[in-house]
Amino acid sequence: MTSAPIQERTPATRRDAKLVQRHAEWKPGVLPFLLPFLLLAGFGLWSFKPNPTPLGWTLSVVWSLPGVGVMVGLQGALLIRRRLRKSHEMVPPTPVEEDFLIVLVPTIGRHDTYPALERSVLSYVEHLPPYFPLLRVDVLTEEGCEAAARIDALAATNPLIRVVTVPKAYETANGTRFKARANHYAHELRIDEGEALDDVWVLHMDDDTGVGPDTAASVAQFVNRQRRAGDEGKHMAQGILAYPRENAVNRFTWLADAVRPADDIARFRALTGLGTPVAGVHGELLLLRASVEATIGWDFGPKAIVEDAQLALTFCRMYPGRSDWFNGRCYGASPATTRDFVKQRERWAWGLVALCFNRTVPFRYRWFLLLCVATWVFGPLQHVATVLFVAWLIGDFNTSPVAQTVVIMWALNFAYVIWTYWEGLRLNALVSANGRRRWWEPIVVLGLIPVFSVMEGLGGLRGLFKFVKREENKFVVIAKPA
């Protein structure tokens, strides 16, 4: 175990303390959902005309499909507001004196991903030591990766950084590939080194995702809380993935990614926070007890390309009720181009569709994910432009559902979409340098929702096609901006 240098164990500076406090006091808004819901419901009920045609029945089904996920998401936002009302009962974050934290950062080690890796790793060694005197940062690389010399040079700058190299000849028992293979190698190494213990925590991060003093405070608060809980403590936790404006090289994709932190404060907060991460987890800011990770591993087979989601479903089966959510943030970067944005979504959809049909996972853990993925990949068929085009072809522009009660569900679903982009943008602006949205950003992000939904849906639909065509799985790694 590596200890942080003595001089870095000082608690956060006054400026950092203000940042921690500002983030801790954030809570999701109610009006950004309530106002669109009332307007949409009012207009829908006013303009409703019974439509028992095939188009009416089809729209009644496809536009109601997201309803279950929306209700779960709203539950998550309300849970955050409820927890913040009880924040006076929470113990303030203090340094973790007994538990050991290992930050695991897998990287493909290309030159175009190295700048983001350097930014992220330097943030770990700057912000985590004040709260984690026992700390090590493991940079996980593949033998012979093109940026190996630069990564080794980075590790030489700080004793907390260790490079773990996966041998090219390494194979898992089930033939797992890609990032899961590397994670499994690191997991076996921890077992061999005697670190698969209850008081060792593994913080999984991506190579383009950094942390701040607020991240360190939130993780420390969670770990200390589990030590006090004893045998009733949680084994897994997830925080929020946010996108500071200054990390973005493309403002358009940065606005499009507003939806991602909103998912963390909605579905993930509800499900992971209540102990059953059936919607999966993401690979950033994923905290796992090393002893528990040792019982699961990452050897999910050669088709696994969404290893984090599969780990979450396995965790649901083996450790029901033992996951949690914490109000901490990590800091990533949106894709550099629209093409990369779609490629990223395509890979996720491809892997998630495969996971939904993976019979090694009991259906009771897959059904919710299946519903969410179906809503996503069939998004282009639900798009307003698609519906209007079909209505024009058949000469019937009555796009009402078959029953008036369905209008309320539609209003709920569409208001939720507006809320996710509004609150996600607010979160991304909060973690940016000036801490606030620019006056034009909410207007633009709301106006571009139809465009963003096409981009999301296109990636999802392409992922579905690749699964149906049974193409060979590929773990596509896009370029990472610095």
Kindly describe this structure:
Helix content is 52%, strand content 10%. Strand 1 (100-106), helix 5 and strand 2 (135-142) form a beta-alpha-beta unit. The chain has a seven-stranded mixed sheet with strand order 3-2-1-4-6-5-7, sandwiched between helices. It folds into two domains: 31-84 and 369-468, no CATH class; 93-336, Spore Coat Polysaccharide Biosynthesis Protein SpsA, Chain A (Alpha-Beta Complex), CATH 3.90.550. With 482 residues, the chain is α/β, with parallel strands linked by helices. The longest helix is centred in the last third of the chain and has 26 residues, at 405-430. Helix 13 crosses helix 19 (449-468) and helix 17 runs antiparallel to helix 18.
CATH domain fold name of the largest domain: Spore Coat Polysaccharide Biosynthesis Protein SpsA, Chain A
Mean pLDDT: 91
| Major sheet strand order | 3-2-1-4-6-5-7
Overall 3D geometry?
A: globular
Listing every helix as H and every strand as E from the N terminus to the C terminus, the arrangement reads HHHHEHEHEHEHEHHEHHEHHHHHHH
Q: Count the domains.
A: 2
Q: Which CATH C-level class of the largest domain is it?
A: Alpha Beta
Radius of gyration, CA atoms, in whole angstroms: 23 Å
| CATH superfamily membership of the largest domain | Spore Coat Polysaccharide Biosynthesis Protein SpsA, Chain A
CATH-scheme architecture of the largest domain:
Alpha-Beta Complex
- Please count the beta strands (DSSP E, at least 2 residues each): 7
Termini separation: 30 Å
- What does the main sheet amount to? 7 strands, mixed
Based on secondary structure, the structural category is alpha/beta
Keywords: Membrane, Transferase, Transmembrane, Transmembrane helix
InterPro entries: B_mannosylTrfase_Bre-3/Egh, Glyco_trans_2-like, Nucleotide-diphossugar_trans
GO molecular function: beta-1,4-mannosyltransferase activity
Organism: Streptomyces roseus
